Amino acid sequence: MFKAKILLIGPSESGKTVLANFLSDTTENVGGEYRPTQGVRIVEFESQPEGSGDNTTCEVELWDCSGDFKFESCWPALMKDSSGVVIIFNPDVPSHLKEIETWYSMFISSQGLHDNQCLLIAHHKPGSGVEDGRLPLASHLSRLPLVHSSLEDEPEDVRRAFCCYLGNVVNAMSESREREEMSIIT
């Protein structure tokens, strides 16, 4: 069984904790009072990734990372041994589109993760009116898969997209393991 460590990163108040709770079935409640995450919060659950071959179950650790830059000194420790990164942002907040470029360079390009180990989620807050249109993303971000999330309107679409992404991560982990085993043999 694979164990995937997935970092949920992005600007403050973008919905990382809400999505972590939803994906892990920790809570059904969508809404409530905002409480910023302090440092990191780890949620563990099992999932069946789509397209990962033999329908294996995967242990998932979602690392719900604070969007506050005062925790920046902790980020290298959070990144250690991560299998994938999900950048979550609110497309209705113009500064988020610029800020996700910083998150990309600090968490994705610095680790050398492949595009299939990354996912962008444009998380629409309740009542914001979801628009699945194209967003003005930087060229390196536009290569990443983008999912529009609205837990109010289409929650299962978000779950399906995450399971598909998780399948990509598990496949990348499997390929990496096979390369490592072959390097030991040869």
Please provide a brief summary of the model:
By secondary structure, the chain is an alpha/beta fold. The protein contains five helices and six strands, in the order βαββαβαβαβα.
Report on the architecture of this protein.
It is a single chain. This protein has five helices and six strands. Strand 4, helix 3 (94-109) and strand 5 form a beta-alpha-beta unit. The longest helix has 31 residues, at 155-185. It has a six-stranded mixed sheet, sandwiched between helices. With 186 residues, the chain is an alpha/beta fold. It starts with a strand and ends with a helix. 34% of the residues lie in helices and 21% in strands.
SSE arrangement:
Blueprint: E1 3-9, H1 16-23, E2 40-47, E3 58-65, H2 75-79, E4 84-89, H3 94-109, E5 118-123, H4 139-142, E6 146-149, H5 155-185
Parallel strand pairs: 1-3, 1-4, 4-5, 5-6
Antiparallel strand pairs: 2-3
